[in-house]
Amino acid sequence: MKLYSVLLVAITFVFSSCSLQKLVEKRGTKSFAKAPFDVIIVPGYPYMGESHPELFNIRMHFAKSLYDKGITKNIIFSGAAVHTPFIEGKLMKQFADSLGIPSQNTFEENKARHSNQNLVKGKRMAKKLGFKKIAVATDPFQFSYMTLLADIYTPGMPMLTFPADSMGVYLLPLPEIKMEK
């Protein structure tokens, strides 16, 4: 098993504690009750290819499930090229399109370099596109600290995630695509 996978499993176990679970249940339940959303913002994650696909893949498949369930009608993928040569928002949109989400329902925000910028720049883009009901969707780890950022930078914006012990549901491979940087 890859070292990264072992670390991810260990972190999942640690963060599956009651405090994270309670935060997910309390805030997540309130947020899901506000669905459907015009758009969700999915923060980027560095794409490192086959070597570390876990959180990237999880965020992609979680976003797809929210679209498939009708929880959102559109998705903005937000992120610049921060730790890799790939522009996260652009690459995530490419993967989303290849997963079967209609291209006209996916958007890329390519300037955000940090989680707080994903919130601010993603919301700004959503408003420019005319979307009114906006939420953020991410994995439980980012959710655990991003809720504080959301309260500061985008007060009242719903945040969607899932229980940490359900990560395996979204840890699926992605289709092969011709990657554009």
Q: What is the secondary structure topology, with strand pairs?
A:
Blueprint: H1 3-15, H2 18-32, E1 39-43, H3 54-68, E2 75-78, H4 88-98, E3 106-109, H5 115-128, E4 134-137, H6 140-153, E5 159-160, H7 167-170
Parallel strand pairs: 1-2, 1-4, 2-3, 4-5
Strand order of the largest sheet: 3-2-1-4-5
Counting structural domains, the number is 1
| CATH structural architecture | 3-Layer(aba) Sandwich
Gap from first CA to last CA: 29 Å
| CATH top level assignment | Alpha Beta
Structural commentary:
The protein is an alpha/beta fold and 181 residues long. It has one domain: HUPs (Rossmann fold), CATH 3.40.50.620. It contains 7 helices and 5 strands, in the order H-H-E-H-E-H-E-H-E-H-E-H. The chain has helices spanning 3-15, 18-32, 54-68, 88-98, 115-128, 140-153, 167-170, and strands at residues 39-43, 75-78, 106-109, 134-137, 159-160. A 5-stranded parallel sheet has the order 3-2-1-4-5, with helices on both faces. Helix 6 (140-153) links the parallel strand 4 (134-137) and strand 5 (159-160). Helix 5 crosses helix 6 (140-153). Residues 1-10 and 13-17 have low confidence and may be disordered.
